[in-house]
Design goal:
By secondary structure, this protein is an all-beta fold. It is built from 1 helix and 24 strands. 2% of the residues lie in helices and 34% in strands.
Length: 229
C-alpha cells in the first residue's frame, strides 16, 4: 500500500502497509500483523483510539483499536501518531505503559520523548485542556494544566508541572519529590506533603529551601503556616 498516494480510509480491515516491518509512519515505522479501524492520510495515522494496550519491554501487546475491533499484536517501536486517544496512560521513566506508544517522538499524545508536553488528557482519554488522573512516575510533565495528577504516589490538584519542577500552584494535598518546586509557592529541593490553598500553606519539609510560601521554622511572612506531623 502506498501511504503517500492520498487519503486512505481503513475501517475494520487490515492495513497491510502499516503491518509490514520498516514501513514509515510519520517518518518512523510500525511493526505488527495488522492495523484495524484506523484512518490513514499519507504517512500519518489519524484518530486512532487505543484501549487496554500495554508495553512489555520494547513490545506493545494487546492493543485494541476503536473501529470496530482489532489488535496490533506484535511490536510498535517509535510510532508517531496524530490525534491518538489514550486510555489508562501511565508514564514510567522514559517508557509509556498502558498505551501503544513507545519511542522518542509522539505527536498529539501526552508523550514526547521522556516528557509529557502540553497535551491534554481528560480522565482516561485525550479530550480536554486538563490532565485528570494521569500517573507520572519518575518522568516530566511539561506545560500541562493538571487536575488529579498523581506525582510519586500522592494527589496533586490544579497545578502545572514543568520539567522536574512544579509551577502554577495552588497545590492541594500534594506530595512533590524533586529538585525544585517553582512558582507562587515553593522554590528549592524536595518538599514533602506540601499543601497550599490561597494564603494558607501546610508543609512537611526536610532539608529544603522555601521561597515565597513561608513555612514554620523556615520563613514566615504574613501567611498562616504550620508543619504537618
Amino acid at each position: 500500500m502506498n501511504l503517500r498516494s492520498g487519503f486512505i480510509a481503513v475501517v475494520g480491515a487490515p492495513v497491510e502497509g502499516l503491518s509490514v516491518e520498516g514501513v514509515p509512519v510519520l517518518g518512523l515505522s510500525v511493526e505488527g500483523p495488522a492495523v484495524l479501524g484506523a484512518s490513514v492520510v499519507g504517512p500519518v495515522v489519524l484518530g486512532l483510539w487505543v484501549v487496554g494496550a500495554r508495553v512489555v519491554g520494547d513490545r506493545v501487546v494487546g492493543v485494541e483499536l476503536g473501529s470496530p475491533t482489532g489488535t496490533v499484536g506484535d511490536k510498535v517501536l517509535g510510532l508517531a501518531v496524530v490525534g491518538l486517544r489514550l486510555v489508562g496512560l501511565t508514564v514510567l521513566g522514559d517508557k509509556v505503559v498502558g498505551t501503544t506508544v513507545l519511542g522518542p517522538v509522539v505527536v498529539g499524545t501526552p508523550v514526547l520523548g521522556e516528557r509529557v508536553v502540553g497535551i491534554p488528557v481528560l480522565g482516561l482519554n485525550v479530550l480536554g485542556p486538563t490532565v485528570v488522573g494521569l500517573d507520572v512516575l519518575g518522568d516530566k510533565v511539561l506545560g500541562v494544566p493538571v487536575l488529579g495528577l498523581t506525582v510519586d504516589g500522592s494527589e496533586v490538584l490544579g497545578l502545572t508541572v514543568v520539567g522536574e519542577s512544579v509551577v502554577g500552584i495552588p497545590v492541594l494535598g500534594a506530595a512533590v519529590v524533586g529538585p525544585a518546586v517553582l512558582g507562587p509557592t515553593v522554590v528549592g529541593p524536595p518538599v514533602l506533603g506540601l499543601t497550599v490553598w490561597g494564603s494558607l500553606c501546610s508543609a512537611r519539609c526536610s532539608g529544603t529551601t522555601v521561597v515565597g510560601v513561608p513555612v514554620e521554622g523556615l520563613s514566615v511572612e504574613g501567611y498562616r503556616c504550620w508543619t504537618l506531623s
